[in-house]
């Protein structure tokens, strides 16, 4: 039986992107009634991993900087929500490793899309990708400096393709939408394979022989989206949910759908092939293209917390 997770974890290094992530995580922790755990990672090559307090090789200046940065983040969060339970942790080592470790006990990990630099950043773009790939709980990557939260005027968008990972993303998205009283938009994208691969050759051959092939692919995607909507209507009665079937690459398609949304939810991998929507490369493409925060969910995470 899983131990209840009572806090959200957020990576913070004082940068604009990290500040946006902190603001988003603070508001989300308050909405859920959870604590907030602020993490600052010092990736210093001269020291071994461990707590800052016990790393004797760290200079006093570096130690002071770490404590000041994480304390400033906690103070900023407390100014917004004085009653929020806030803890801090400064660690020595890679930021991605620190945040993945934090995900073992967190309900959600929140990171920015970029950070300050290679020596001290907790939220570099490469870090956000690594954390989404390896975390033990869902991860939200906050894009840019805009603070968008799911709500009645900011829908939750989720990509589906009928795979197990897609279902995990759908469940997470529906829970978030229901808790935030936000509409849910279910998006299924289909597209012909590109390039000189055997799949594209097959597509061209079949398309020439069967004029209905494109329509069949579109109908198949509509069926996937329809099944997802039916599941949501059964599991979350009263939740406003609508389906969209779009033609195009899934990453850019979800990026387009993110306009005006409070959150986009995508799985980290899926079926692949003609209609696969939640491949690892797609989640990365969505993070890059989205205009609002992106939640990445894997079906093998041992707990999918969203409410």
How many strands appear in the DSSP assignment? 11
β-sheet strand percentage? 15-25%
Average pLDDT score: 80
Structural class, from secondary structure content?
A: alpha/beta
Secondary structure blueprint with pairings:
Blueprint: E1 7-11, H1 16-32, E2 35-42, E3 50-51, H2 60-80, E4 86-92, H3 95-103, E5 108-112, H4 125-134, E6 139-142, E7 156-159, H5 164-180, E8 184-190, H6 198-209, H7 213-235, E9 241-247, H8 250-257, E10 263-267, H9 280-289, E11 294-297
Parallel strand pairs: 1-2, 1-5, 2-4, 5-6, 7-8, 7-10, 8-9, 10-11
Antiparallel strand pairs: 3-4, 6-11
Helix pairs in contact: 3-4, 8-9
Structural overview:
The structure is a single chain. The chain is an alpha/beta fold and 307 residues long. It has two domains: 135 residues, HUPs (Rossmann fold, 3-Layer(aba) Sandwich); 142 residues, 3-Layer(aba) Sandwich (Rossmann fold). It is 41% helix and 19% strand. The chain has an eleven-stranded mixed beta sheet, with helices on both faces. Helix 3 runs parallel beside helix 4 and helix 8 packs parallel to helix 9. The protein starts with 6 loop residues before the first strand and ends in a 10-residue tail after the last strand.
